[in-house]
Amino acid sequence: MQDSSYQFRATPIEFNAGTFPIARAVMASSCVPFAFTPVIIDKHFFKNEADAKIIHPLLVDGGVYDNQGIHKIMQSGKYNCSHVITSDAGGGSGGELKIKNTISLLMSTVDTFMSRIKKAQMVQDVYNNATGTKKQIAYLSLGWDVEHLISGFIANLLHNQITQSVIDALQLKPDWVANVKQYEKEIASYLEEKTGYTAIIKPTNEEKQIARSVGTNLTALSKKQVDCLIKQAECLTELQVKLYCPSLIKTV
């Protein structure tokens, strides 16, 4: 509740988060505004039940406010983190919108809204990080290919979107940083060796497609879907952490 005004009261309002049912939290995470009623926090979940008469927080789909889930930890405050690892499991939408009725229109509207929040947050929290909060942030998406991550890092280095702490931890030569285009091949070869790129187990195109086609509903997953998700997420996480949060990896 840090972003709400009652966070800064003389006497903070606190909740018994440990007793709040996980099932209710999961239900709340699906409460998109147009379709479902927000979940109310009952008074017995307040550490002081009298506080329930002062404020009335409602739980909705978190993507309405924070699509990436890192907004709070990027801010200065008690939740502030120096290193952030975040995964985007959303596949996103593409192509021409197909509106058949009012429901599909509302769903497309929310999807567009979420997409705008996501992109705005990525610019603010990830791409402008090097000139802003200067944290080490490893961002990854299931829609990405591990084969393109090193070239993506080099592109970010070219556009001054890599923090100095990452450059120092990776021991990138000053000449490389100052002349990225000139030394692009040397940087790529160095990073492949530095991160152990060739040893990383990579999914096949078929496994990637299976991982990306998994829905975000509560339907049970097959073993193959789980294995493909693990394989895709594992390789992306390993390489992105080694590239963007190198101080967490002692062997890098």
Give the key terms.
252 residues, mainly alpha, two-stranded antiparallel sheet, two-stranded parallel ribbon, 4 strands, 40% helix
Radius of gyration (CA) equals 21 Å
The backbone outline, from C-alpha atoms, is globular
Helix content: 40-55%
End-to-end Cα distance: 37 Å
Number of helices: 9
Could you state the order of secondary-structure elements as H and E? Answer: HEEHEHEHHHHHH
Q: How large is the share of residues in beta strands?
A: 5-15%
How many runs of DSSP E, i.e. beta strands?
Answer: 4
Reported for the largest beta sheet, the result is: 2 strands, antiparallel
| Mean pLDDT value | 84
List unreliable stretches of 5+ residues. none
The order of strands across the largest sheet is 1-2
Helix/sheet category? mainly alpha
Question: What does this protein structure show overall?
Answer:
The chain is mostly helical. Among the domains are: 60 residues, no CATH class; 102 residues, no CATH class. The protein is 40% helix and 6% strand. It contains nine helices and four strands. The chain has a two-stranded antiparallel ribbon. The chain has a two-stranded parallel sheet with strand order 3-4. Helix 8 packs across helix 9. The radius of gyration is 21 Å and the shape is globular. The model has no long low-confidence stretch (mean pLDDT 84).
Give me the secondary-structure topology:
Layout: H1 22-28, E1 39-40, E2 58-59, H2 71-74, E3 83-88, H3 102-127, E4 136-141, H4 149-158, H5 164-170, H6 174-178, H7 184-195, H8 205-212, H9 223-244
Parallel strand pairs: 3-4
Antiparallel strand pairs: 1-2
